[in-house]
Design goal:
Elements: H1 3-6, H2 10-26, E1 30-44, E2 56-72, E3 76-81, E4 90-93, H3 98-101, H4 109-122, E5 130-138, H5 148-160, H6 169-180, H7 190-197, E6 202-207, E7 212-217, E8 222-228, H8 242-262, H9 275-282, H10 291-294, E9 300-302, H11 303-309, H12 315-322, E10 340-342, H13 344-364, H14 371-394, H15 401-412, E11 417-420, E12 428-434, H16 438-451, E13 461-464, E14 471-472
Parallel strand pairs: 3-5
Antiparallel strand pairs: 1-2, 1-14, 2-5, 3-4, 6-7, 8-12, 8-13, 9-10, 11-12
Helix pairs in contact: 4-5, 4-6, 5-6, 5-7, 6-7, 8-9, 13-14
Amino acid sequence: MDLTQIYSNPESQQQRYAALKTELESQGYAFVRYARAPGRVNLISEHTDYNGYQVSPIAIENDFVFAIGTKAGSGIVTIQHMDPSEHPTDSFDSCESAASIAHPNGEWSQYVRAGFHAARTYNENLSYEFDLLLVGSGTVPLGSGLSSSSALTCCSALAFLAFENEVDKVKLAQMVAKSEATVAIEGGGMDQAISLNAELGKVAVIKFNPLSLSFVKLPEGIRVAVFSSMKDSKKATGDSNFYNTRVAECRAGCALLYQKYTKQEFASNVKINMCADIQTLYGKKSPSQMLSESEELPEKLSLKQLAEQLHYKSVDELMNSLFTTQAGGILLKNYTDKTQLTIQKRLNHVYSEAFRAQMFERVLSNISDDDHERLHQLSAISNFMKESHVSCKDDYECSCQELEEVIRAATNSGAFCARLTGAGMGGFAVGLIHAQDDEEFMAKMTAFYKSKGIKNIEDVLFLTDAGIGGGYL
């Protein structure tokens, strides 16, 4: 892998890489190699990965990079960012247990520590007989919904495995997803899978249980535009903790559907937590066939009502059975018996979005050379993405005023479709444009952002092709 494969402006990136190496060597470490992992933008299929359904992301050019260096020592790992005022330096002993190393600390380094946890899971004997320094910098905007945290965790895992003969990146992606959940939110594995395994010029189709990746070519003449709502997407923080709440609401709906189908009390040892599992249980060939079932779910239930319907003795028993995280915590914060869960709309979104993703893949896999047919196919792709956004806004309720405004601006500037991407509630949106319209689009969107007082346009607006996944340089 070389810089020309990765970046549209490799010259500026060369300076970035050189600065990392210079900083590392200035501290007496011998340079070994670079590790990098990109962010991603999801074209469709939002909030479906943790429900067991396929997703269709691409890797973007923006990434996280570590320079890796060693010197004589006893296995101490030091983690340093090129912007230490915002990202404090951290260190740990690689001989300690992975569980004691990977813990939430509210700093950027928690994701690096999670990367070590994943690397230790990949190689249970991982430790170092020398001191290790990682010096890094990232270009994925924070709080963007473009997986800045997963890019960092994936890059970290690669850095810690830099001395392996070969790394199975599909296998590693699954381990990174589980390790990242020890310090942050419950995800489904999409972000890590695409960051490590993306193919240049292609849209990934990622399926789960087991994890598999296939790729379809991004149509020629189409560019992906990515633009900020100017509101951070903080899915793992705040009292609302909306991301984990959505996970909980989906689990609640699945439990109710399970109980309805089996006509048995939902037991604490039942392990069906995902909408895809329920589709299999019901014997439906398409997720769209589950919509008639999800429409019969209650619109809302309090936790007390849900516990009663599922035959739990108390809300606390419900919480400790159905709503636990991989790290052993509880999905919902500050809950009471009266805490309300929205159920029907959430599953309506998941099943309809899963069907749209399947249709999106089908059309993308068969793009015609005939101009008339191709125009029809691009119109279908546009409609799928627009419908996805409406469902995210109305049924999953993960849009916001700022996202709606920037999406309107993008469509008025020439994007033939646009939608929120990532968890939502802020962050970035994504749109498709015809390549011949890219200059006009960028000019109009630049004017939009300048009218909002934004000076550094590159922080909020960029065009990208489908990028390449993480690796070593």
